[in-house]
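PROTEIN DESIGN WORKSHEET
SECTION A - STRUCTURE
LENGTH: 492
TOKENS:
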């Protein structure tokens, strides 16, 4: 039995209609999908497994997505709940407008790998450029919202050159938009939506994007002039900063794969930074990550004192440290790890003393990432700085809270999630709660300077883990990356 999906959906209440798919043998539970799921595209009833999209869907890529998932680990139901949360957080009669990230070009026709704007991705799961999402609050209750998408039409000629597109029907029938339109119609339809809004939530970029269909020009038009405007990102930060179980699971998988890759790197001797860089990138991918989460720091010797050293083109020398700050990405969620170990695999006395001083402080700071501690990242930073002062004084450093920033110049941590520095602008002074995911990364960077003990000069040490805050104890997402001195030495 086959049903044309759109006509069936139209007879259902909006929130339920967008939750139902039709199977050839039964009506399945909301968002339960399998390769035999039947979808209607235009006038024909066809299997989604026979269609082409710009990103994986379960029907075409069951080896990547489970039934019901729009992106790895994240179900269509969770995306719908996220939109409901946003609508519930907005004022009555408000509209949120989001624009997909533009494709960025390296030079000429050579483009960078596409990366969707994080808030757009978090709300829709849509991973294609030249798209606009509009979420309109329609009532006081949870789920009272209308979700519209403006996307690129499928075009065989364009797709032959530039790859497949999701298309308008997919925006509605897979990504569950209440209405889906061609991005070419945004000029005529979006002004009407904005005109009826009491308040428009949007993050207008300071510089116009490259898309010819950018909606931001409408915000200064007479059609939208009467509507008050407010930034969207503060609302989104509050929603995104507390991670769901599925988000944490993705980050844990990224942490597990990444931690094992870094531990595997410690087992081997390395001569060139770029070889270690290539090894980690390969290990992330071959073991299941989408790829590296960011350009890694692969530093040897005095370069370990450069916090964001990423050229990774020098040589390692005996008697020096290797500092790696690297992590993989899984299902668009990242992990962030830093480890430091001797080039030879064996710590000298001075290396051991300084390393264990940093490690002791890091362990203490990690232990504070629990809801019951009622601390913020800013609080933990202060505790970390005081701990480093005490440890370094015991090693002969003339250091105090007044000058510790000369040896520890960065913050102890930041929020992580879809981005390495997640929820930009969200305060580090907020008390950590269950579901917050952060890094804890104390470091000591000793320059060649007469102010500091001679045998530590030139050493840079950073030890970083990704942590999910729980009620009574931290959930360490990166535990597979070894960090105890005896464990590191035992690897070789």
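SECTION B - SEQUENCE
RESIDUE ASSIGNMENT:
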């Amino acid at each position: 039995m086959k049903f044309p999906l759109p006509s069936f959906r139209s007879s259902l209440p909006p929130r339920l209609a967008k939750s139902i798919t039709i199977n050839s043998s039964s009506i399945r539970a909301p968002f339960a999908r399998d390769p035999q799921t039947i979808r209607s595209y235009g006038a024909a009833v066809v299997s989604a497994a026979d269609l082409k999209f710009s990103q994986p869907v379960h029907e075409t890529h069951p080896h990547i997505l489970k039934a019901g998932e729009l992106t790895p680990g994240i179900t269509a139901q969770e995306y719908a709940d996220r939109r409901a949360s946003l609508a519930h957080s907005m004022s009555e009669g408000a509209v949120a407008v989001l624009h997909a990230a533009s494709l960025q070009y390296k030079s000429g026709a050579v483009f960078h790998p596409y990366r969707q704007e994080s808030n757009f991705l978090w709300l829709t799961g849509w991973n294609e450029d030249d798209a606009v999402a509009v979420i309109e609050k329609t009532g006081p209750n949870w789920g009272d919202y209308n979700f519209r998408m403006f996307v690129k039409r499928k075009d065989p000629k364009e797709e032959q050159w530039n790859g497949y597109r999701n298309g308008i029907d997919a925006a509605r029938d897979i990504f569950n938009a209440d209405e889906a339109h061609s991005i070419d119609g945004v000029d005529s339809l979006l002004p009407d939506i904005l005109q009826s809004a009491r308040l428009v939530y949007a993050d207008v970029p300071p510089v116009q994007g490259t898309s010819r269909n950018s909606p931001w020009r409408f915000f200064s038009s007479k059609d939208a002039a009467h509507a008050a405007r407010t930034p969207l990102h503060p609302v989104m930060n509050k929603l995104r900063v507390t991670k769901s179980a599925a988000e944490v699971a993705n980050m844990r998988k990224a942490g597990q794969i990444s931690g094992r890759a870094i531990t595997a790197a410690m087992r081997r001797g390395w001569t060139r930074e770029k070889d270690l860089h290539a090894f980690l990138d390969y290990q992330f991918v071959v073991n299941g990550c989408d790829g590296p989460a960011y350009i890694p720091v692969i530093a040897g010797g005095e370069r370990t004192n450069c916090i964001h050293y990423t050229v990774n083109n020098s040589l390692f020398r005996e008697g020096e440290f290797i500092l790696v700050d690297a992590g993989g990405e899984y299902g668009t969620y990242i992990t962030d790890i830093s480890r430091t170990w001797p080039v030879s695999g064996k710590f000298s006395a001075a290396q051991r003393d300084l390393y264990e001083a940093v490690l002791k402080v890091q362990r203490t700071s990690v232990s504070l990432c629990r809801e019951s501690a009622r601390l913020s990242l800013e609080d933990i930073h202060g505790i970390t700085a005081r701990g480093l002062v005490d440890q370094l004084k015991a090693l002969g450093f003339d250091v105090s809270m007044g000058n510790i920033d000369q040896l520890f110049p960065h913050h102890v941590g930041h929020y992580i999630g879809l981005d390495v520095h997640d929820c930009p602008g969200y305060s580090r002074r907020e008390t950590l709660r269950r579901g917050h995911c952060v890094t804890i990364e104390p470091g000591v960077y000793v320059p060649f300077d007469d102010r500091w003990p001679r045998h530590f000069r030139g050493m840079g040490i950073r030890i970083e883990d990704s942590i999910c805050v729980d009620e009574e104890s931290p959930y360490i997402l990166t535990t597979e990356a070894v960090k105890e001195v005896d464990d590191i030495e035992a690897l070789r």
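SECTION C - NOTES
The chain is about 30% helix and 15% strand.
The first helix runs from residue 5 to 9.
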